[in-house]
Amino acid sequence: MKTGLQPKRRSFPRALGSVFALFMIAAAAPTLSDEAKFDAGPWIEDLHQIRSAMSDKYANFEWAVFEREIDLSSLFAETEAALRSASSDQDAKAIIDRSLRAIGDGHLRVRWATPAAGVPASTPETQSDICRSLGYDAFMRGQALGPFIPGYRPLPDNVAPEFPTGLVSIGATKIGVIRIGLFSPQGYPELCASTRDRLAIAEHSQCDQQCADRLESAEYAVMSQHFALRIRDLKRLGSTVLLIDITGNGGGSEWAEAAARIVSPHL
Questions:
Q1: In total, how many domains does the chain have?
Q2: How far is CA 52 from the centre of its chain?
Q3: Strands ordered across the beta sheet of 241-245
Q4: Which pLDDT does position 112 carry in this prediction?
Q5: pLDDT band, residue 103 (cuts 50/70/90)
Q6: Would 163 be classed as within a structural domain?
């Protein structure tokens, strides 16, 4: 849902895209600029807008403050200081992305939009890969706990790599372990890259909202197929107990319901 906030119009050739966290604020993607002319001011203004929107609209605000014990005041102060030391738009974008990831909520991210009409597009040599520019980051999916279980035997990761899977035997009982690091594709940049290639989207092309939605829809379909494949593999290998590892999973989307439907027939 949109908060209704609108970005200030600037001559600066960028604005923020959308900040997600069960809320969205208007924003626009950065374009490349001459480092000598870099101005951190507009980025700091947007950082203040993000903080204001989080205070008013962020559904997981209390979770971040009281459960995660994150000092948001210090986090935003450190982020602003880092922005003042940035040397380019790409540096500033990365600083904001890292700060939001530190909160550890898969719902919270910035979707960087394409430049507004009239803004010169960057060249293929200087453009970021569209998966990175759309906020895909393996950091969001965390670390699987399966390998730390005594006796864990991983299944090959060349199939359904989004869901690390393995077996643990306790006596005659085989326990299947599947990791779901995030309930959305944004934690899987490799999935984004393979889907991008399958859809014949150029690696360094500009990806607008329609493009991003098309990419995400195709990724959800692959996630469902791969998750079902992992379930079938475990059943074929004799697993009679299923352990789904969602440690540190920050949420992400309603795909969690699809995952539950996939598992249900096998219970």
A1: 2
A2: 22
A3: 153-154, 165-170, 173-179, 241-245
A4: 63
A5: confident
A6: yes
Cα dihedral 86/88/90/92 (nearest 10)? 30
φ, ψ (nearest 5 deg) of residue 166: -160, 180
Domain containing 97 equals 18-122
Q: What is the pTM of this model?
A: 0.60
Structure tokens at 232: 């079938």
Structure tokens at 163: 């869901």
pLDDT of 116: 40
Query: Could you read off the pLDDT of 19-43 as tens digits, one per residue?
Result: 444 334 334 444 444 445 788 998 9
228 in any annotated domain: yes
Whether residue 27 is found in the same domain as residue 65: yes
Do 99 and 216 have their domain in common? no
User: Quick check: 50 and 101 in contact, CB under 8 A?
Assistant: no
Answer yes or no: do 146 and 213 share one domain: yes
For residue 100, pLDDT beyond 90:
no
Residue 4 lies in a domain: no
Q: Indicate the average pLDDT of the chain.
A: 78
The domain that contains 66 carries what CATH number?
1.20.920.70
Contacts of residue 119, Cβ cutoff 8 Å, sequence gap at least 6 = 13, 14, 31
183-197 pLDDT per residue, tens: 999 889 999 999 999
How many other CB atoms are found less than 10 A from the CB of residue 22?
14
Q: Which DSSP state fits 175?
A: E
Residue 156 sits in the same domain as residue 226: yes
Q: Read off the pLDDT band of 13 (50, 70, 90).
A: very low
Whether residues 55 and 118 fall in one domain: yes
Task: Say if 205 falls within a structural domain.
Answer: yes
d(CA 133, CA 30): 10
- Alpha-helical regions (H) of the chain: 41-57, 61-62, 72-84, 89-101, 130-133, 189-198, 209-236, 255-263
Q: How far is CA 183 from the centre of its chain?
A: 10
